[in-house]
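note to self — DONT lose this again. spent like an hour looking for the file last time. sequence + predicted structure for the chain T wanted, 194 res
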Amino acid sequence: MSIPKHKHEDQRYLDALVNNDTRVIGEIYHRFSQRVRHFVQQNNGSADDAADIFQEALVDIYNQARFKGLELTCPFEPFLLLICKRKWLNELKKNNRRGVTIDIDEQSNIGEDTFFLAEQLWADGEKTKLFKAMFAQMGERCQEIIRWSLSNKPQEEVAAALGVTYGYLRKKKSECMAGLIASINTNLSKWGLK
């Protein structure tokens, strides 16, 4: 038995599309189109391509909301970005004459997997923000040790660069990481991620 999902407050964006609320539709363009343009341009596309993909995604969402009763159960932004990303990658595959992975019918059918992936994308982004916030609250030495340790350099080299012994680096790194993880775990529920 599946758990019933509740409408997300961002359902207002779908309602705006269905009701042709120009003020909120303008907000959609203002808030979200730049990220789509950036993604498309970073992946062999132009600003015009991005505008087309953005518009097509909104039309698909409109059709799903208007004719199939789509209700948003996650934030709108990752949902929209995921649809745009899928559309653009499909467009790239078409242009390169490789097999198309998502056909037209599948493309316009926004299923549970899209919601799941969008929810996961949103949660991952929020967890990254939480990590950065907790990391910023740490002491400078711990920040420095963690930054160096994440640099993919050999630990002996990191110890030498920091002017400490290898044994001290391992011990301090463990203490710092434990403190960071504890801070993150303590704040997960405050951030709505638990």
